[in-house]
């Protein structure tokens, strides 16, 4: 390891005792909680409006005269309340990740910082893209399919709390699924696999994508396919990006001991180079 590989000393980066790290972690967690609470309080007056927007993909496909319902007495209050809290955490995610980065960055080497920070930013953006893909693409198709397949005589009237749990599960599933390129790059960066190894495992990845789609989505073919196919495409993007991060190790020749003939020729050459009459050492 060369001296340039060591973490660059910055203000506040000096080595601290374990208790000081715990105090710093506590302070950063308090900042995160404070920011989330402030955003949550700002969203509370709009909690019902947020739920109306969130339920739009379902209500657009409900039969005429049908609507969402609240089975529990407290659901009309607690369901929008829960949604506002989730949206607050979702909106504060960049700040949360920044605090996490500020806590771990002093312990990283300079070349590690150059690689980890772009991955941190890209993982945040990909999670948002996955959630947006779920809302604008997956929800209309899934809810349109589910409402059309209801048996004759059955009125589709979904409970608001169960609907919220359902869509939050899909948001989480698609947000995590869109992190596949980051996971692929990390596997290559840490040396666990190479881009060629990943390319050779493509058939297994496709099967695994459909299995994950089956486990993380509701039991319908549309949502499973809409999760599995993007995961496969994102895997291909991750392999492409990993080739840019991957530095192929330089080939080195294996050591081969000299043969008996080579050793005899070398001894003869040494004898010829010696002066006449000089004693052999």
Features of this protein?
281 residues, mainly alpha, 69% helix
Give an overview in words.
- The chain is an all-alpha fold and 281 residues long.
- Helix content is 69%, strand content 0%.
- The protein contains twelve helices and no strands.
- Mean pLDDT is 79; it is low at 9-14.
Largest sheet: none
Number of helices: 12
Classify the secondary structure makeup into a structural class.
Answer: mainly alpha
What's the total number of strands? Answer: 0
Outline: elongated
The low-confidence runs, each spanning 5 or more residues with pLDDT under 50, are: 9-14
Share of helix, binned:
55-70%
| Arithmetic mean pLDDT | 79
The N- and C-terminal alpha carbons lie at a distance of 40 Å
Question: What fraction of residues sit in β-strands?
Answer: under 5%
Name the helix and strand elements from N-terminus to C-terminus, one letter apiece. HHHHHHHHHHHH
Oligomeric description of these chains: single chain
Radius of gyration: 30 Å
